Amino acid sequence: MRTLLVFLMCCGVAWGQVEFDGKGNFSLSQVHEVNGSRSDLQKWATEWAAKTYNNSNYVTRINDDDQILTKGSFEVPAIQTINGKEFTQGRRINYTLNVQFKEGRYKIDITDVALEQHPSYPDRLQDYFLGKEEYRNHLRRHYGPESGAELKSMTRLIENDRKYDELYTNIQKYGRSMVIPITVQIEKINQSLLAYMKQDHSDDDW
Fold first, then answer.
1. Which of 79, 175, 166 is CA-nearest to residue 124?
2. Cα–Cα–Cα angle for 94, 96, 99, nearest 5°?
3. Model pTM score
4. Closest to 43 (Cα-Cα) out of 72, 68, 61, 62
5. What is the pLDDT of residues 71-101, one digit of tens each?
6. Across 10-121, where does the E strand assignment appear?
7. For residue 186, what is the DSSP state?
8. Which has the closest alpha carbon to 164: 151, 173, 174, 154?
9. Which of 107, 79, 60 is nearest to 178 (CA)?
10. DSSP three-state, residue 31
């Protein structure tokens, strides 16, 4: 898996390191050292989750002394090309956040990064990074007779090499347009939690 290093100076983050395999799969795994006991770290992370997600009871799946497991989402822009014109479309990205605690350090894992399913077309991030013929076969399965879809215009497009080449180029552009925004958002989550964990919590005990 190659590492995508994105310098995010314009976004208020010095730099980020997010794993991206070039096939639509994103993840982050990092250990941070923070002054505090395991219970302190768990408490602070729970506070951060409540403030970040506004409703920690909804997103939290596991919350104990050793681990917090939550589900979250964010929105990113995606460039869609229709008839030669580009439009920006917002796409919601879901993810799993897993934070584990030990004395003086915690581990953050962000996994299961996936597009929220479109009601009319159940696409996946990985679809937009398929090879040319892989994607053509993907469309055949979705729009072909075996799927029950009767979209003759799409069938003609798939089998017309010139039109399909244009479609595939636009599909690649659509996928690539989300790579940096997704990376930025994942790193923002990482840095946001780290900043909260490292802030002065001395006023918490009163």
1. 175
2. 150
3. 0.84
4. 68
5. 899 999 999 888 888 999 899 999 999 999 9
6. 16-20, 26-33, 60-63, 67-82, 85-102, 105-115
7. H
8. 154
9. 79
10. strand
